[in-house]
Amino acid sequence: MEALKQKNKKIITVTLAKRIIISLIFVLIFDLFLFAMPALAAEPINEDNFVNSEPTTEPIVEEIVNNLPETTTHKAVSSGYHTVTAYNSEIGQCDSTPCITANNFNVCEHGIEDTVAANWLPFGTKVRMPELFGERIFYVRDRMNKKYSNRMDIWMLEKQNAKQFGIKVVLIEVLEP
Fold it and tell me: What are the φ and ψ backbone dihedral angles of 7, each rounded to 5 degrees?
């Protein structure tokens, strides 16, 4: 008998078990009210959402507030005809860092053909070539050889496209900032 009494040792006391159970109930109630509220708040309240009504299959659409400036047509500050060529990121056409432009912009990571090189315009200037590209806007991010003071070079992703572009004399519109 003595051996059986030793085997039936209590692991926890009754008061400790009561405290654990009360704590678990408190956590469950707290969790239910705290984390169920955002889901309830997402649904709009109307007569159809009350108890004993069927769930609606219509998605809840929230209005998105746009804080960005609205796109407007850019006005040309000046325009003129200039010789335009094309280039791409090759060491033979650029320096030892072909993907990095003169203002430290990485055209290879960007991957969008919206960069031009021009010595006669400051960095960041927006330009447009309506005869070739319509309303598409290009940004001056690179420079050319110093002997080309009045030319513009368009960066292209593929060498074949740059070769096919060739040399053109095009109307270039310098846009307002």
Answer: -70, -30
Distance between CA atoms of residues 173 and 80, nearest Å: 7
Tokens of 143: 């420079």
Q: Which residues are CB-contacts of 148 (< 8 A; sequence separation ≥ 6)?
A: 119
* pTM of this structure: 0.57
CA distances (Å), 24 to each of 12, 15, 87, 177, in order? 16, 14, 69, 62
Query: Residue 175 — φ and ψ, nearest 5°?
Result: -95, 155
Sign (positive/negative) of CA torsion 93, 98, 99, 105? negative
How many whole angstroms separate alpha carbon 154 and alpha carbon 116?
4
Its sign, for the CA torsion 58, 62, 63, 68, is: negative
Helix (H) or strand (E) holding 93: none
Q: Tens digits of per-residue pLDDT, 35-93? A: 655 555 555 555 555 555 555 566 555 555 555 555 567 888 999 999 999 988 877 66
Please state whether beta strands 137-142 and 115-118 pair in parallel, antiparallel, or not at all (unpaired). parallel
